[in-house]
Amino acid sequence: xxxxxxxxxxxxxxxxxxxxxxxxxxxxxxxxxxxxxxxxxxxxxxxxxxxxxxxxxxxxxxxxxxxxxxxxxxxxxxxxxxxxxxxxxxxxxxxxxxxxxxxxxxxxxxxxxxxxxxxxxxxxxxxxxxxxxxxxxxxxxxxxxxxxxxxxxxxxxxxxxxxxxxxxxxxxxxxxxxxxxxxxxxxxxxxxxxxxxxxxxxxxxxxxxxxxxxxxxxxxxxxxxxxxxxxxxxxxxxxxxxxxxxxxxxxxxxxxxxxxxxxxxxxxxxxxx
Length: 273
Ligand code: COA
Fold this sequence. Notes:
Layout: E1 11-15, H1 20-31, E2 35-40, H2 43-55, E3 60-64, H3 70-84, E4 89-92, H4 107-135, E5 139-144, H5 148-151, H6 157-176, E6 182-189, H7 195-201, H8 205-212, H9 223-234, E7 245-248, H10 260-270
Parallel strand pairs: 1-2, 1-4, 2-3, 4-5, 5-6, 6-7
Helix pairs in contact: 1-9, 3-4, 4-6
Coenzyme A is lined by residues 95-98, 100, 106, 108-109, 112-113, 196-197, 200-201.
């Protein structure tokens, strides 16, 4: 675990910070000394995270925001700055997802997911980036993507295309904003046991079992495992890392398309009397 003052006095905005991975990152950043602004559409989720943080003696602020709306994003940044005086860290974690065949996906369905993931990440990065450039003290942006940004994502074409865009954005901004000492990195989590992901991606126990079987380490990830890596990447311990994506998936994406199963079947067939 990182030492307790790793993010001392840093101010972090975390989108989607009311639930799941966002909430876990907010709690971990606060444990490491940061002040946190959580933003999403559902105020009650945000308020619950803030209450939890305050119970731990930390400082946090809830700002209801739809990241698809540039004016709401500008408001988020203004309110965060007003309350805490600066912004050091942005985590673009807000996401939307559901499984749907490409031919059945409506225009609104496409727009909802691409709007949250790709547009939202850009609006937040632009608004916070401008602030960080003006502050002149550097900063950190962390994007949450998925390995299907590289492989394509049958069943989630909207999310896969949006995450691929965010991967390109990560690499682009890492170079553009290096001169301002703003580091831009990404995490690609595999299946992590959160309520939101479960609802969207493995809604039944059978589906959950099938997903689990795709992970070489044989289990789902836990939100805290993502939060630890996120804290590392936005901390000074990662001061020479920019434009990178850290895959945290128990080996899941490397397990695709190998021949081990075939070999085992072939061997057992040959050894039959
Ligand atoms: N299958 C097919 N289409 C779906 C769908 C599903 N499971 N869920 C939503 N849609 C479609 C809707 O039908 C609508 O299209 P239409 O007007 O043509 O009918 C469109 O998507 C927008 O849906 P709506 O619910 O109005 O959008 P929203 O902005 O309120 O919600 C979502 C955005 C759809 C991404 C919603 O799932 C969401 O907010 N999720 C947040 C949490 C989340 O998904 N986390 C993912 C963790 S991996």
